[in-house]
């Protein structure tokens, strides 16, 4: 998967660079506090680094064999998961939808370790809860199911 890795890595880096540049339009609340400007820049910076790693791996991959997986099917199914996630958020709320999305994507990716299937979705949701709701005071949708 040499060429797809290079292309996807560059696409991720370009999108992350675009959003990093857009983060300069976010108005800072106070210089002394952690504001809404920090998290997008951290995430975009991480995406740029990770995209660069994927590009480097693609460039260094000298294997001649290409994997014959149905990559378009995986991409379409992943998009379906994300679309379902977006449709569920107003009803089930952000946190439950996020746990279901991450667990579903892990299961779809053939992860069968029960510890990972439970800890990764809960850990990601806990990270979002602490980072956004507690530190940044961002209002997170609860969903009509719980209100």
Tell me what you see in this structure.
The chain has 147 residues and is mostly helical. It is 70% helix and 0% strand. The protein is built from 5 helices and no strands. It has helices at residues 2-22, 38-60, 71-92, 94-108, 114-135. Helix 1 runs antiparallel to helix 2 (38-60), helix 3 runs antiparallel to helix 4 (94-108) and helix 4 (94-108) runs antiparallel to helix 5. The longest helix has 23 residues, at 38-60. The radius of gyration is 18 Å and the shape is globular.
Keywords:
mainly alpha, 147 residues
Helix-strand blueprint:
Layout: H1 2-22, H2 38-60, H3 71-92, H4 94-108, H5 114-135
Please sum up the structure shown:
The protein is mainly α.
Strand content: under 5%
Q: Specify the biggest β-sheet.
A: none
- How big is the Rg? 18 Å
Order of helices and strands: HHHHH
Q: Can you tell me the overall shape?
A: globular
**Gap from first CA to last CA:** 46 Å
Quaternary structure annotation: single chain
Label the structural class: mainly alpha
Overall strand count = 0
List low-pLDDT spans: none
Mean pLDDT level: 86
Total of helices: 5
């Amino acid at each position: 998967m040499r060429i797809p890795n290079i292309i996807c890595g560059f696409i991720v880096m370009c999108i992350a660079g675009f959003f990093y540049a857009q983060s300069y339009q976010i108005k800072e609340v106070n210089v002394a506090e952690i504001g809404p400007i920090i998290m997008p820049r951290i995430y975009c910076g991480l995406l740029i680094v990770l995209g660069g790693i994927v590009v480097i791996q693609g460039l260094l991959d000298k294997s001649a064999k290409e994997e014959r997986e149905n990559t378009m099917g995986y991409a379409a199914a992943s998009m379906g998961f994300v679309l379902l996630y977006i449709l569920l958020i107003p009803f089930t709320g952000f946190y439950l939808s996020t746990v279901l999305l991450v667990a579903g994507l892990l299961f779809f990716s053939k992860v069968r370790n029960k510890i990972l299937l439970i800890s990764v979705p809960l850990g990601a949701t806990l990270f979002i809860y602490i980072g956004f709701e507690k530190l940044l005071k961002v209002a997170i949708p609860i969903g009509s199911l719980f209100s």
